[in-house]
Specification:
Dehydroquinate synthase-like, alpha domain; 2 domains; two-stranded antiparallel sheet; binds glycine
């Protein structure tokens, strides 16, 4: 299996996303053209570092590597670990023309990208995403940042990476639940803009989840390609980029309600949110009855959560969940922007959603738990 490249064509900020097996082992050759001197600084987390840091060091060959491993988990994505990372980079004498490497999942990619964005007013960085979620979503497109006490991702910057190395082999070391959570974002791409890709996922998803690398590479490549085309059209989310948030308004409310705990992983919330977005679309007469049923059937076939009823433990009532949705950062002038769909593969952004219908969809989903 050879690697494939998706170009993110953003003019002066254009870069390649390489997707394939063995990229960690080839990291030195891939990164060398970007270097002015043969040394890099790596930000990772302790769990990913224990699994992959030595492989990266070997892959870098004679490029000197220095590394900082932060604690794993979402709690790392705040000011304390961020300032620790920035001070460490300065202490390591990382200069304007050097490269920072983010080795890890979404937390590390977002934090390291933001550190690179502000360090000496901006240094270049390379994403080496190690989770499926990071490979298909967060490592591509230049959204970087950390969380505030006021909400997730509220502090940050658009800062595009100079290269992304998505090594399909590292996905083998993911726990099954983490892999499937990332798969929630893969399904999202089919649902938002490519019905044929959703058909393909229905046919190939189970084998892909069992570990077939060629199928995994295809799924990552198609997801990245779709994201790249959307980011090229709308880098800073003035319009179309919001399509990538299909399922996310519901997801963020459910994540907040469950305290961002392992009761609900992000991609699981996205999957449930996509099912709810299709349910809402159907109730509003926008899409057929078959569409939400097909979304749920595929998630079920994958052994994934597909409904609010699948979330363990207590949840607040429909009004409280509606209030959490109203705090979403995609609120513009007090109106929620929703991503709805006319069919599988045909999502669109709208600020014109009947709140009573959304409330009813949530209330019925909550009632189904009893
Ligand atoms: N994860 C959504 C975006 O990159 O826009």
């Amino acid at each position: 299996m050879t690697s494939e490249t998706v170009r993110v064509d953003l003019g002066a900020r254009a870069y390649d996303v390489r997707i394939g097996p063995g990229l960690l082992a080839r990291a030195g050759a891939e990164i060398a053209p970007l270097l002015r001197r043969r040394r890099v600084a790596v930000l990772t987390d302790e769990r990913v570092g224990a699994l992959h840091l030595e492989a990266l060091r070997e892959g870098l060959g004679d490029i000197a590597m220095t590394a900082l491993a932060l604690p794993p988990g979402e709690a790392t994505k705040g000011w304390p670990e961020f300032s620790r990372a920035v001070d460490w980079l300065l202490g390591e004498r990382i200069e304007r023309r050097d490269i920072v490497i983010a080795l890890g999942g979404g937390v590390i990619g977002d934090l390291a990208g933001f550190a690179a964005a502000v360090l000496r007013r901006g240094v270049r960085f390379v994403q080496i995403p190690t989770s499926l979620l990071a490979q298909v979503d967060s490592s591509v497109g230049g959204k970087t940042g950390i969380n505030s006490v006021h909400g997730k991702n509220l502090i940050g910057a658009f800062h595009q990476p100079s290269l992304v190395l998505a090594d399909i082999g590292v996905l083998d070391s993911l726990p099954a639940r983490d892999f499937l959570s990332g798969y929630g974002e893969v399904v999202k791409y089919g649902l938002l803009g490519d019905a044929a890709f959703f058909d393909w996922l229905e046919a190939n998803g189970p084998a892909l989840a069992r570990g077939d690398r060629a199928l995994r590479q295809h799924a990552v490549r198609r997801s990245v390609e779709m994201k790249a085309r959307i980011v090229e059209r709308d880098e800073t989310e003035e319009g179309d980029r919001a399509l990538l948030n299909l399922g996310h308004t519901f997801c963020h409310a459910l994540e907040t309600a469950t305290g961002y705990s392992d009761r609900l992983l992000h991609g699981e919330g996205v999957a449930i949110g996509c099912a709810l977005a299709f349910e809402t679309s159907q109730r509003l007469g926008l899409c057929s009855q078959e569409a939400p049923s097909r979304v749920r059937a595929h998630l079920k076939a994958m052994g994934m959560k597909c409904d609010i009823a699948d979330i363990p433990g207590d949840l607040p009532d429909a009004d409280a969940l509606m209030a959490l949705m109203a705090q979403d950062k995609k609120v513009v002038d007090g109106k929620l922007r929703f991503i709805l769909a006319r069919a599988i593969g045909e999502a669109f952004v709208t600020a014109d959603v009947d709140a009573a219908t959304v409330r009813q969809v949530i209330a019925e989903a909550l009632a189904a738990r009893r």
